[in-house]
Write a structure and sequence with these properties.
three-stranded antiparallel sheet; 26 helices; 47% helix; 642 residues; alpha/beta; EC 2.7.8.-; LTA synthase family protein
């Protein structure tokens, strides 16, 4: 009997079966497999619950997981790895669920409420603007008092249950061995690190592409719907934090030289009309290409210079941001989109200033108002109103999209109907890519080039759209010439068009898109310059501007209008005397002297540092610069609820 007892109490084989790190339960086999399957099952339930809360729709949530190529299954695996890794840190099997579940479910609930009340998904940057989240609470209490009460009860009950469960789990579940914890970390940490490394949407990832995680950063609602709440939230994490520039203090802001200039407008206030033409560029710059007749004769005759786009082939909102605010994307994280991540409170812009001087600030875009979050951003920029597809009268289409001619008609109609001086910012839509062959019936141009038939037809579609944009500008100029009121018209392309294979076949580029970091300053100019016109019905086109960043457009436009401002014509005017291009990868002086990779150098021009300090102060800091540089914004900062 003694032998039998000794044999019965003998430890199981010393590998996995007797190791509590595997989730071993006496008498059950395959503990490693069982632990992994349980972790996956828990993750699947948790991810499903998160999506259900955010979407508020059972059918939509089920559909998200029934499609095998959707990222929902990737999310489940990632959650399982997180749970396994945290189990190793906490020292108990499956105890990580008590941290991950409450956190993710709470984020999902806040995300659903934000989407319900503000029409926008939850971004990591929202936690930089906690006022926006807290602003939801009074709305919730007023609109759904019983829901608010249920929330309070649920939070109290949930916290109590969590504390009880945590203590019970620590008593009842055996601690993991060092070997088991190390095994979990060895599995989870490298895989999670690899996953994090492929989530930078600004760079292409073959693995991310195979997993069908497609960053849709220009349409965050679709981004969250397609990729799921967790992955879309993760895609936005890299842009969540903007560090203060070295030396940012109130004393540093006070030490910046104040321009000897105040805000002023002429007695006869000129109307200012800005047209940002979608993908407008000179296609005759393509090697070996001849287009007849000239698709852009008006632009060629009136051209003031070139705009240096910070983007290529897309990301229109980033060009808008610079052109309207006089700030620069060069001082923000690479790949960020300020319209999506950072504009959360009233932000100084030309609209803010001109409205304070009695102007009616209006914006128009024939697309939807949620695209690039324009509806909320334009409100924060100070526009009186924004007309989009939802509020514009039916607009005639040219090809699949609203025509430039119809948008020009709307600009003229609204300007003629306005008694107040008008600041008008218009973003066209017609020439948006892709440029499929035979986009337009009865084309009026011909393309000759040693390229494939498909590429020629695609280029012809683009050339026809460019010609329509040019004709829209011509009509606007002819109308403005007949006006008694002084009128300034600015016209520019936001970026080069996404012509893809056309660039490769003509030899303009080696790949379908330009590299983010160009090998030479000249290559950067070749791939980022778009035509710029600034014209006055009193003095004609402004000449010899050269190539300028969109951040300098407020300076040139207001100067042409005879308007002064301490920042837009004062500070930016002095900056323009030093640099004509301020890009994250390139500084270019008026004389053409280039400084590539300036941000990585030990010594940065103090003028650039001042530029960065003012921008950070007004966007993320304490707005010490407002009284001297943006006096019209003082005491007017509140979180938007648009």
């Amino acid at each position: 009997m003694a032998k039998s007892s000794k044999r019965a109490s003998k430890a199981a084989p010393q590998f996995l079966e007797d190791d509590p790190s595997t989730g071993y339960l006496p008498g059950r086999r395959w503990p490693v497999v069982r632990y992994g399957l349980i972790s996956l099952a828990i993750s699947a339930i948790l991810v499903f619950a998160v999506e259900l809360i955010v979407r508020g729709d059972v059918a939509g949530t089920v559909s998200f997981f029934l499609q095998p190529l959707k990222p929902g299954w990737t999310t489940i695996v990632v959650f399982a790895l997180i749970l396994i890794g945290l189990d190793a840190v906490l020292g108990r099997s499956h105890q990580s669920l008590m941290i991950v579940a409450p956190l993710t479910l709470a984020l999902a609930f806040v995300g659903h409420q934000k989407s319900h009340y503000l029409g926008d998904p939850l971004y990591p940057t929202d936690f930089l603007y906690a006022r926006q989240i807290f602003a939801l609470l009074p709305l919730l209490v007023r609109d759904r008092p019983m829901t608010a009460l249920a929330m309070v009860v649920a939070i109290v009950a949930g916290l109590s249950l969590l504390v009880y469960g945590w203590r019970l789990w620590r008593r009842k579940v055996p601690a993991l061995s060092h070997k088991g914890r190390l095994a979990r970390l060895t599995l989870a940490v490298p895989l999670l690190a690899f996953f994090v490394s492929i989530m930078d949407y600004a760079t292409f990832s073959w693995t991310r592409d195979r997993l069908q995680i497609i960053p849709i950063m220009w349409d965050q609602k679709e981004n969250y719907a397609s990729n799921g709440f967790a992955l879309a939230f993760a895609l936005n994490v890299p842009m969540a934090h903007v560090s203060a520039p070295p030396g940012y203090t109130d004393k540093a802001i006070a030490a910046i030289d104040r321009p000897q200039m105040t805000a002023s407008v002429p007695d006869e206030k000129p109307d200012i009309i800005i047209v940002m033409s979608e993908s407008f560029w000179d296609p005759t710059r393509l090697p070996g290409v001849t287009i007849t007749p000239d698709p852009i004769p008006t632009v060629r005759a009136l051209r003031s210079g070139s705009m240096f786009s910070p983007e290529f082939g897309g990301m229109t909102a980033n060009i808008e941001f610079e052109a309207l605010t006089g700030f620069s994307n060069a001082f923000l994280p690479a790949g960020s989109i300020p319209y999506q991540q950072y504009v959360r409170t009233p932000t100084p812009s030309m609209a803010t200033f001109l409205k304070s001087e009695g102007y009616r600030a209006r914006a128009i875009h024939p697309g939807t108002n949620w695209f690039w979050n324009r509806g909320a951003v334009y409100a924060d920029f100070g526009f009186n109103d924004f007309k989009s597809e939802e509020t514009l009268p039916p607009m005639e289409k040219r090809g699949p999209l609203a025509s430039d001619a119809a948008m020009t008609d709307e600009i003229i109609r609204e300007a003629d109907a306005s008694d107040d001086p008008l600041f008008f910012f218009a973003v066209s839509l017609q020439n948006h890519g892709p440029y499929e062959p035979n986009r337009y019936d009865n084309p009026t141009h011909a393309v000759q080039a040693p390229i494939s038939q498909w590429a020629r037809d695609s280029l012809l579609s683009y050339a026809e759209g460019s010609a329509d944009a040019d004709r829209g500008l011509e009509r606007l100029i002819e109308w403005a010439k007949k006006r008694e009121r002084p009128t300034i018209v600015a016209f520019f392309g936001d970026h080069l068009p996404p012509l893809g294979p056309v660039y490769v076949e003509t030899g303009f580029l080696k790949d379908n898109v330009a590299p983010r970091k160009e090998p030479t300053p000249q290559a950067a100019l070749d791939h980022h310059e778009t035509p710029l016109i600034i014209w006055s019905n009193r003095s004609g086109p402004v000449a010899d501007l050269g190539t300028v960043s969109p951040a300098f457009l407020p300076y040139h436009i207001l100067t042409a209008a005879g308007i002064t401002h301490p920042y837009y014509t004062g500070f930016l005017g002095e900056m323009r005397e030093r640099y004509r291009v301020v890009d994250r990868n390139l500084l270019l002086t008026p004389a053409g002297e280039a400084t590539p990779d300036w941000s990585r150098q030990k010594e940065i021009d103090p003028a650039i540092r001042d530029f960065q300090l003012i921008q950070y102060d007004m966007m993320f800091g304490k707005r010490h610069a407002a009284p001297d540089f943006f006096p019209e914004t003082v005491d007017k900062v509140v979180a938007h609820m648009s």
